[in-house]
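Usage example:
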Amino acid sequence: MNLATLVLLRRVRDRIDRDYAQPLDVEALARGVNMSAGYLSREFKAAYGEAPYSYLMTRRIERAMTLLRRGDVTVTDACFMVGCSSLGTFSTRFTELVGMPPSEYRRLALHGLPGLPSCVTKQVTKPVRNREAPPTSAVLT
Amino acid sequence: MTINIQASFLPHTDPDASLAFYRDVLGFEVRNDVGGGNMRWITVGPPDQPTTSIVLEPPAVDPSITDDERRTITEMMAKGTYIRILLSTKDLEAVFDRVQSSGAEIVQEPMDMPYGVRDCALRDPAGNLLRIQQVS
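Running the assembly step on the lines above writes:
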């Protein structure tokens, strides 16, 4: 791929990492580097193996996991704090990535998994990066 | 027996831009500068740490690297997935303000991470990822 394009894609990816909590969407990301949304999505996926919207949502879910583990942040608060405007979309994507709904994740992170030592709970509930993690594979691997 | 970390290497794409960044923005001293044009090896390091250096070097010039490998390295540098380093400071906020006001590309503002450190992340002019963490 053209190096100048790759540098622009890097700026988009860095912007997602930096500003994920802002109301970003692919159109806004594309405008920032003078690309069309469709072109950005295709090139970004070719370069990073994941579409920009997916990368953005992964970043948000990852941060939400950290917030939910604190205990003083509700699922709804976490959703909005990481830049998601739809609780439904947030919960769906969270469940896909983490393997359980955010409410369940929060409960497990705070109270532990019944019958498991806390160090195992910590392992099972730790934030993931770009890893679709069904609960069966997240446990004790 | 004591072994010191003497130097590690970071690639540059524009030696003058990288030199300015490490010297003028991060405050490193320049310990050596050899070669010319794009083929420059520039040794920099923190003034308080005279026995550890970073050598800014042209990427993938080893003749044993194939053209395909060279292209991959150049692409990875451009897309920001090639090299990362970890620095630390006692005053993260001040360092971050300085880096941000220099116009450097910011990847993450200072933030508490789930694994217990507070850090920020940015790009050097060649696209290398620098994380800078707070230490007491």
